[in-house]
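User: I've been going back and forth on whether these two constructs are worth ordering. Before I decide, could you fold them both?

Assistant: Sure. I'll take them in the order you sent them. The first construct and its structure tokens:
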Amino acid sequence: MKLLNRFLILGSLILTLASCSNSNLESTPKAVEINKNQNYSPSMAIKNSETIRNIGVENAILEAYNLQRGIDPVYYSYVKIDLNSDSVPEYFVYAYDPMLSGSGGGSALILNNDYKEISRFTLVQTPIIINNHRTKNWKDIIMTVSGGGAMPATAIMKFDGKTYPSNPSLQPTLGTHDYIDGVKIFTENISKNQGLKIE
């Protein structure tokens, strides 16, 4: 009888320990898989490209890249967006044609309100993000790097007081703890013979 009681007590003790162990396992937080897009705000705004040709923008593209109207087939998209919080929008221009584009991306310009060039970019992939974070009072620009033999990455383009760097593949990349929130531009399907045509 004593032996039976010992077995019952031992069995009860084992069940109690097992129950506690399962309870602890259930209350332990599970590891969360890091999403590669976790850096981006889920409510990021989108600003559509303008749909009406702009002669000032077109002349700036032709001058910047030494092209001729009516001879060189150039397509472009542009948005008007305030990058330095002076309540006067700049022109962010994406231009593409056989001379301006390649597997690494297209070309882009930032123009002031008088169509004077502020910055020029190469190897531009779309879309582009205008981040809310500022450097020297100008918003950081987030660009994707891919194609043309470059390692896929997300570059942060920071204003240096005069201009933005021209090549995103040579800039610091988005870190694990960098949080991106702002406005996404050039989200349209930009490809050959799309957008506005200079003619």
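The second construct, handled the same way:
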Amino acid sequence: MTDARSATTNERLEAEREDVGLDKITAPGRHGRTARWSRRVGAVVLALTALALAGCTPDQMDQWSRVGLPEAASDRAPAMGNLWVNTWIAAMAIGVLVWGLIIWAIIAYRKRSDAAPRQTRYNLPLEILYTTVPFLIIGVLFYWTIRVQNDVQEMSDNPDVTVDVVGQQWSWTFNYQTEDTELGTDVHDIGTIERVPRLYLPVNQKVRFNVSSPDVIHSFWVPAFYFKRDLLPGQPTSFELTPTKEGVFAGKCAELCGTYHSAMIFEVHVVSEAEYQAHLQDLKDRGQVGSLYGHANQRTVTGLDGDGEGEGR
């Protein structure tokens, strides 16, 4: 009797599916099985995440919290870091939602019989939703990007230190504008392919960088400052920031600029005021006085075997 009643029930459900569509009538226990499967997948994901995090050192965990950014060393870093991290959070939230919907649809509406499901030509509310939501997301990101851009590009009337940075093929020149100080003259440091130049900056003092290029496009980038500025030939530009942490930081050209682009690296030494002044005096004592800017067609190849041209400035 029980077997006959079960067979009758299954036949009735199958008939109703064919009449009104598979999404209207579901077999008993379908949602229960889906829910159990989803819980198992969630448990596996959580276990793998916990296992991965257990192998991380405190420094690695700290970098994870910055989503890969290095430890900050300038006053421009907080705004840039917050924008970076929050953008990733928004992207992950949207990604998890989309991936979750995809997986749910795959599981909930997987094929169970040869019967064709009900066909839907369009769903106007749904189409309006997935058209407007991306514009809202882009609008919010655009708003916060403009706000952060305005903050990090803010300039003051009287910076504490001014450095004219020249990027040339294939190294850097740092001109310290110190003529109006006790030093009595501008001094400079210039790098070559064989010698990495060093940029000295005093900690906790506002520095203005005037950047330019005499040849091709370069890009002045110090990752720890969370700031990068392109150098366009014939279009000098400026920016300001305050180094907030003493130490030695890597700098590089972030724009492919020719054969020896990889040699366009430099070191940033953020030091105390006394060490900064001592470095300027050392440059003066070595005769590295004045400012060097290059000319329109310059190609600085000092350090290449058999080629001493291109040094005139």
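Notes on the second construct follow. The chain has a mean pLDDT of 80. The first strand starts at residue 161 and ends at 168.
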